[in-house]
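Incident review: delayed structure delivery

Summary: a single-chain prediction request sat in the queue longer than the usual turnaround. Root cause was a stuck worker, restarted by the on-call engineer. No data loss occurred. The affected request and its eventual output are reproduced below so the record is complete for anyone auditing the incident later.

Affected input:
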Amino acid sequence: VVMANLNSKKQVVLGGPTADILQAHDALKVKKYTVVKLPVSAAFHTPLVGHAQKPFAKAIRSVKFNKPQIPVYSNATAKAYPATAKTIQKQLESHILNSVRFREEIENIHQDGGRIFIEFGPKNVLTKLVDNILSGEEYTAVALNENPKKDSDRLLREAMVKLCVIGLPLQKFDPFALPSQVAPVKKSAMNVSLNGTNYVSEKTRQEFENTMNNGFQVSSPVASISSSGSVPVFSTSTGTSSPVSGTSGLQTATGNQQLFDASLKLKTEPAKQRPA
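Output delivered after worker restart:
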């Protein structure tokens, strides 16, 4: 009798001759273990299927193997298969003689970063094993058809929803789904489109605030006065300047209006005559 499967922290599978297995069954029942006879055709993953190993290995050698694109774990070694195709092929030749180390395999996948476990096929036996193995750890285990008595199509859709909720980018998994129709959104008159024109810089905002607090006073730039008593006036349309004598104003872009600052007082001095 050998351990054919090491499935979880609480479950193993024994394999061997029928008489020996029945004897082990009774002994374990006496010790209050839960024991279930498995309806299998042979003692797989034990030396008792050695007669099938050679034809199995021959069939394996007839298949072309490629380098795996993603890590694939072996339940015989509980580790990822090697990166070379020949090594994988050689390893699989004796696969049916080795015990299934499912518990170690799941633990190694989790240790290597695996967090989502999806069970394909009927029932949820493997999902429950993962729950037992990774109890207390961070993981998600989902069975696609967990109950054979329920609608399998509905169960598949529910499983897909669970996987979408945890973040898997699943799309168009139902080829028969009708295209979703989104009702047109009516444009409201109260909607205001926000863009760059609504932006007010901090400098402009500060100028607005200063204007509100200084009694709406507008100050004009003070020009320097030449010794002749004339004030240089700048034209904004041409970018040129010209002196205006006896006035205290600034010429506008049109050249026909002047802004006077009552607070500006011009003081002129008579020009000094040069000695003869």
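Verification: The first helix runs from residue 18 to 30.
Action items: add queue-age alerting; document worker restart procedure.
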